[in-house]
Amino acid sequence: MPASILIVDDEANIRRMLGSLLRAEGYRTREAGSGLGALAEVQSEEPDAVLMDLYMGSESGLDALPRLREAAPELPVIMMSGRASLSDAVKATRLGAFHFIEKPLSPEAVLLTLGSALELRKARDLNRALREELGDRDEMVGRSPGVERVRQMIARVAPTDARVLITGESGTGKEVAASAIHYRSGRAGGPFIKLNCAAIPKDLVESEMFGHERGAFTGATERRRGRFEVASGGTLFLDEIGDLSLAAQAKLLRALEQGEIERVGGTETITVDVRILTATNKDLRAEVAAGRFREDLYFRLHVIPLHLPPLRERPGDVALLVDHFMAHNQRRHALRPPRLEAAALEALIRHPWPGNVRELANILERICILYAGTDVGAAEIRAVLAGAGPMPEDAPAYRDDDERSLNERLDDYERQLLTGALDSAEGNVAEAARKLQTDRGNLYRRMRRLDIVR
């Protein structure tokens, strides 16, 4: 359906001129001759964008703008005027106007500005739709005392700007907790940027965090903003913070202490306004004692500790999580959910869940796909749990008819080992690294080299 534009101006000829221009471009138009009329139109049916005059007789568009924004917070409003001062333009922007264009109006300026406003609206609508689809991931599901304590702590710390260190085993929902803190904070309208510290090669950590200038190093063909800069005005979530190298820890500490960064290869000091949330499944006190984590950085990050209990300590929440993920998978895959018998649910409750909530979510997704619309008993649950993933085959023997090079054969076997371990670990990279007796950073690097995506 064509976008709907509300034209607000006390001059009828301006409304007619703009209406003709916009209808010729395929837009639908509505009109109002005053701020009160515009508010009534918006409350009746919200348009996709508004073009509003700054001065309308005795009425000011600046007075109407806050009322429109209150009625429709995501509605882009473009202000127009032929006799506005710079201070008027600044005030309009502060009140939430999308843009300010001067009269006499140029068709090109009107259409270009309107196109940008509609792109913004489309992006906001898409973001809201995604949030509605994925928003259940920002909820801590459960009624156990452990989950209630987490929920209460999130409610206390979210409105503040305090740094939070989230701890817990892999799969307990540390990213969910960080997301919940962000979206319940005053920074909810800003970006929520995530960075997995274990996944960054050591020589690229500084570039990932702080960005780089063109030519700063081999391969830096253009300027790139880092995560700190992108997250300014919002929240930066540093996952697996315990895997950050000591050199990277020093650079992170400096950014936290000064609130400023410099891009790699640059000389400009950039001020950033970022709330930092971190997470780890390591004991950072032990890491500090072992000399692998800076004590001063630990104290900077450990302002508010938030520990997430493993699923085995809250078996009473399994049934609620089952309902939650069943509904999620029904929406995601458009399948009729399976019907779990009492014995099937009991088997899920009794399972130790070493991979915690993440493992349960993966198992339930598999059940939803394999047994859509059918009855599922304990036998089916045991079969799915037993067949969580194939283990890699034994190393192949030398064959004269295999014309591949040594490197190609080794890559093929390594790919089998890695995919087998990842399947066995339900996609949990940390658990796969433990099974392979290596660190996560090394496993991530090998996965990238072999084009293994999980």
Separation of termini? 38 Å
Query: Could you name the CATH class of the largest domain?
Result: Alpha Beta
CATH architecture of the largest domain: 3-Layer(aba) Sandwich
Report the CATH superfamily of the largest domain.
P-loop containing nucleotide triphosphate hydrolases
Strand order of the largest sheet: 2-1-3-6-7
CA-based shape: globular
Domain Response regulatory: 4-118
Domain Sigma-54 factor interaction: 140-369
Keywords: ATP-binding, DNA-binding, Nucleotide-binding, Phosphoprotein, Transcription, Transcription regulation
Protein name: Two-component system nitrogen regulation response regulator NtrX
Could you give the topology of this structure?
Elements: E1 4-8, H1 12-24, E2 28-32, H2 35-44, E3 49-53, E4 55-56, E5 59-60, H3 61-71, E6 77-81, H4 86-94, E7 99-102, H5 107-134, H6 145-157, E8 164-167, H7 174-183, E9 192-196, H8 205-210, E10 211-212, E11 224-225, H9 227-230, E12 235-239, H10 246-258, E13 260-261, E14 270-271, E15 275-280, H11 284-289, H12 295-301, E16 304-307, H13 318-333, E17 339-340, H14 342-350, H15 356-370, E18 375-376, H16 378-386, H17 406-424, H18 429-435, H19 440-449
Parallel strand pairs: 1-2, 1-3, 3-6, 6-7, 8-15, 8-16, 9-12, 12-15, 17-18
Antiparallel strand pairs: 4-5, 10-11, 13-14
